[in-house]
Here is the input.
Amino acid sequence: MTPADHEFGSISTDLKLSLVGGYLQQFTTALRPQFENLWYIDAFAGTGERTVVIPGRAADMLGPKVDERVERRRGSAKIAIDVVPEFDRLVFMDKRARHIAALNELRASHAHRAIDVIPGDANAAIMRLLSQQRSWAGTRAVMFLDPYGMSVDWETLVAIRQTEAIDVWYLVSLAGLFRQATRDAEDLDPSKRAALTRMIGTPDWQEDWYELKKRTNLFGDTDERLARTAEVDDMERYFGARLADLFAAVLPPLRLNDDRGIPQFALFFAISNPKPAAIGLATRIARHILKAGMAS
Ligand SMILES: C[S@@+](CC[C@H](N)C(=O)[O-])C[C@H]1O[C@@H](n2cnc3c(N)ncnc32)[C@H](O)[C@@H]1O
Here is the structure.
């Protein structure tokens, strides 16, 4: 295995990357004439590539044997490097040492580009990066938050919003939310509660998602228990409303399911800049892209 090997995702990974890539392309095309500094910040950058294993097939009546194939496709970091007009600065963050090694190789092979590779937890790295920037005048950025799970802290989103310069594509883990928010409140241990509150930014989900329900056992005895009544659609709406309270504008998300049709993620687009012209432009581009994603 090379440092660049990073196997993840499904059909919806291709869709997610093609939508975000499409946005990046249109973003630099539209903003290049107006801004000196266009940045791309990939806080969960991976390796720059992804390895896709395409299963083989035994010979049967439909055809001969097909061997398994391994394909290397571009990950988000490479997609952003290839965007024309180019980004002026690209910032890649990741927590895994092997992924950082691959990102450093990617940087070395594009020595003429301004690329920063930042190791460590994305929340701390974003906070540091944003605090180093005294003014955002003349700079506009797109950030891609593409974690596997519930790794983005609410306070990180608050800091991003305060820049008024960064548009965010955020892949929100619905599976993380409905797995951590157990059906029976008795199973909610302190670490699950803390993870949910850190991601959602308020403990109110405990009241909003749970209700006292009557339970009858085999012997006909009844008691009451606190049970989750919020389903995945409710959780997506709830998180969307939280984002809409924080950001200047948020678009309806694209739902991404796994190969068995189970909801995994909601791809949200949020805009930090409150100026009507900025909201109008980013919304026009992203809405069109999300619509195409919903139709595919
Ligand atoms: C879904 S992958 C990202 C894929 C990437 N966007 C691409 O298209 O190639 C998630 C990445 O986040 C990294 N990661 C996980 N937790 C992290 C954290 N707390 N901070 C920074 N990176 C993290 C993982 O090492 C992994 O590379």
